[in-house]
Design goal:
GO molecular function (chain B): ATP binding; glutaminyl-tRNA synthase (glutamine-hydrolyzing) activity; transferase activity
Number of strands of chain B: 11
Helix content of chain A: 25-40%
Strand content of chain A: under 5%
CATH class of chain B: Alpha Beta
Number of helices of chain A: 4
GO biological process, one term (chain B): translation
CATH superfamily of chain B: Amidase signature (AS) domain
Oligomer: heterodimer
Helix content of chain B: 40-55%
GO cellular component, one term (chain B): glutamyl-tRNA(Gln) amidotransferase complex
Number of strands of chain A: 0
Subunit structure (chain B): Heterotrimer of A, B and C subunits.
Shape of chain A: flat
Largest sheet of chain A: none
CATH topology of one domain in chain A: Histone, subunit A
Radius of gyration of chain B: 22 Å
Structural class of chain A: mainly alpha
Strand content of chain B: 5-15%
EC number (chain B): 6.3.5.7
Largest interface: A-B, 59 and 77 residues
CATH architecture of chain B: Alpha-Beta Complex
CATH topology of chain B: Amidase signature (AS) enzymes
Distance between the termini of chain A: 37 Å
Chain lengths: 100, 513
């Protein structure tokens, strides 16, 4: 499998919405390379005849009636931890930048 | 020994007995534990938040209800510490992260609600590695917890705060969460008891998710009976968690009270009884097995060849799920918001917030998870890891076809020094070699103390694993072994821990916050 480059880490950081510094990117590039090398062994034993397991206990999807549940927050509660709100809505900065 | 000193050393079961008999009030018991926290937590730093006033109010309410003749739960009036991964109405809940600093959730996690309804008295929130990512609590944004056996050593992680709180007699009970060993490994290094129940036994509603297919909430205590009593309180179906198991559970406390290992078949996992484990850890492990054998258990060797790939699979599955779960920390609905100089779009605010709010281990795992899930790598990494998960489950299935429970040392070494592995993530990850397979397969596990390693005088734990839904088997074998060891030792292992008061000043000078 491929080596991880600094450009890739920068791209991943952008996808994950973390504004990493150049120093962090350099450090993570080395570390991720080492970690991926250590975990790559999974592909050696994961032969095509082995089915994947996504969940430890076999489960079926759970449905319930489409009615209001017993754990609904009030608007006030839902907004209580927000960095900024206008009393009824979360407030965020501009969705689009000038160039968009 | 003062009255307060005596109260804090009681097991939860014994304290509950004294409360029910009217020998002591919940207010007295709660105050004794708050006094202990005041005296030693500067050095131990097990707590991120202590809710003293509210705890005393809750205790007074229980005392009133008991006096009025109300029928109360068995643990009513007993104090409990809560890992900061569980959201608590009215108490800050940070999951050890700067990004949630000061956040006060508007609701209780289901295990917290059940604990309150059973009349237990929440003392506060315990320290942990940020978002439960770590094996030492050194990744907490609020500074590490110190092991009460040696303040320069790690208390384990991620739930080092809960384990240290019960080991230091700051609380008789605590709640923990276990994604790859975060309840069992801290129990091992602090000489305490920790149980990861079957996946789905305890609701995850209100537990700040790390890896949803691996996380499980469980008890952290000083005795096996206390763990059983607490599991009986927190387990059970919850419609708010779609992975919660609907079947009813037998009483775990009954399993401890009837504990008997005669005829029990115990499988020793060959792959986890190797040279890679510290000599004193293996010695105490085998002495415990010999003791069980002398009392009627049958010890057989079993092989689980795919366990060697478990860590690799875990460090793909966990970051993948974590990178998705942690996307919710976006500076919009709760927690930190950092706006770049001169403003910015919502995406730039998000990126600046997550850069400032997450610590290095969290960033490392989010980036790793994003990579493992990205197009072109998904099948090779995440898909392969899920296949290894199948292989690990098959190893468990074939082992449990021949034995009732499995036994391993809980972790390869005793508590290491704070700072020793902080710059070597791979070495840190190896701590979880014996505990991770249970999370991948969803099976339950217990760790209980089996002595001190002769070479360093630090606690060693044994881990038992049982098939999914057979948690009672762990309480049976754990309860039986604990009684045999107590008879041999003449008292609990924690009686041999150093008195903490002499260390207080030292740790305060070190700057333990």
């Amino acid at each position: 499998m491929s080596e991880i480059s600094a450009e890739q880490v920068a791209h991943l950081a952008n996808l994950a919405r973390i504004a990493l510094t150049e120093e962090e990117i350099a450090h993570l590039t080395t570390e991720l390379g080492q970690i991926m090398q250590a975990v790559e062994q999974v592909s050696r034993v994961a032969t095509p005849d082995v089915p994947p397991t996504s969940h430890p206990i076999p489960l079926q999807n759970v449905f319930r009636d489409d009615v209001v549940g017993d754990n609904v927050l009030t608007v006030e509660q839902a907004l209580s931890g927000a960095p900024e709100h206008d009393g009824g809505r979360f407030v965020v900065s501009a969705i689009l930048g000038e160039e968009q | 020994m003062s009255h307060g000193d005596e109260l804090i050393r009681l097991s939860a079961a014994d304290l509950a007995g004294r409360l029910a008999a009217g020998d002591v009030s919940s207010v007295e018991a709660t105050q004794a534990h708050l006094d202990r926290i005041g005296a030693v937590d500067g050095a131990v730093h097990a707590f991120l938040h202590v809710a003293g006033e509210r705890a005393l109010d809750t205790a007074a309410d229980i005392d009133r209800r008991r006096a009025a003749g109300e029928s109360l739960g068995e643990l009513a009036g007993v104090p409990i510490a809560i890992k900061d991964v569980l959201v608590t109405e009215g108490m800050p809940s940070t999951s050890g992260s700067r990004i949630l600093e000061g956040w006060i959730p508007p609701y209780d996690a289901t295990p917290v609600r059940k604990v309150r309804e059973a009349g237990l008295v929440p003392l506060g929130k315990t320290n942990m590695d940020e978002f439960a990512m770590g094996s030492s609590t050194e990744h907490s944004a609020y500074g590490p917890t110190h092991n009460p056996w040696d303040l320069e050593r790690i208390p384990g992680g991620s739930g080092g705060g809960s384990a240290a709180a019960v080991a230091a007699f700051e609380a008789p009970l605590a709640l923990g969460s276990d994604t790859g060993g975060s309840i069992r490994q801290p129990a091992h290094v602090t000489g305490t008891v920790g149980v990861k129940p079957t996946y789905g036994a305890v609701s995850r509603y209100g537990s700040i998710a790390l890896a949803s297919s691996l996380d499980q909430i469980g008890p952290v205590t000083r005795t096996v009976l206390d763990a059983a009593l607490l599991q009986d309180v927190i387990a059970g179906h919850d419609p708010h968690d779609s992975t919660s198991i609907a079947d009813p559970w037998p009483s775990m406390a009954d399993a401890v009270r009837r504990a008997d290992v005669a005829g029990l078949r115990i499988g020793v996992v060959k792959e986890l009884d190797s040279e890679g484990f510290q000599a004193g850890v293996r010695q105490r492990f085998h002495e415990a097995l010999d003791l069980l054998e002398r009392h009627g258990a049958e010890i057989v060797e079993v092989s689980t060849p795919n366990f060697e790939h478990a860590i690799a699979a875990y460090y793909l599955i966990l970051p993948a799920e974590a990178s998705s779960n942690l996307a919710k920390f976006d500076s919009v609905r709760f927690g930190l918001r950092v706006t770049p100089e001169g403003g910015g779009t919502v995406e730039q605010v998000m990126s600046a917030t997550r850069e400032a709010g997450f610590g290095p281990e969290v960033k490392r795992r989010i980036i790793l998870g994003t990579y493992a899930l990205s197009a072109g790598y998904y099948d090779a990494y995440y898909g392969s890891a899920q296949k290894v998960r199948t292989l690990v489950q098959r190893d468990f299935e074939s082992a449990f076809a021949n034995v009732d429970v499995l036994a391993t040392p809980t972790a390869p070494t005793t508590a290491f020094k704070l700072g020793e592995k902080l710059d070597d993530p791979l070495a840190m990850y190896l701590n979880d070699v014996a505990t991770i397979p249970a999370n991948l397969a969803g099976v339950p596990g217990i760790s209980l103390p089996v002595g001190l390693a002769p070479e360093d005088g630090l606690p060693v734990g044994i881990q038992f694993l049982a098939p999914a839904r057979q948690d009672a088997r762990l309480y049976n074998v754990g309860g039986a072994l604990e009684q045999l060891l107590l008879a041999e030792w003449g008292g609990p292992l924690l009686d041999r821990a150093p008195a903490l008061t002499t260390h207080e000043l030292l740790a305060t000078e070190e700057g333990a916050v």
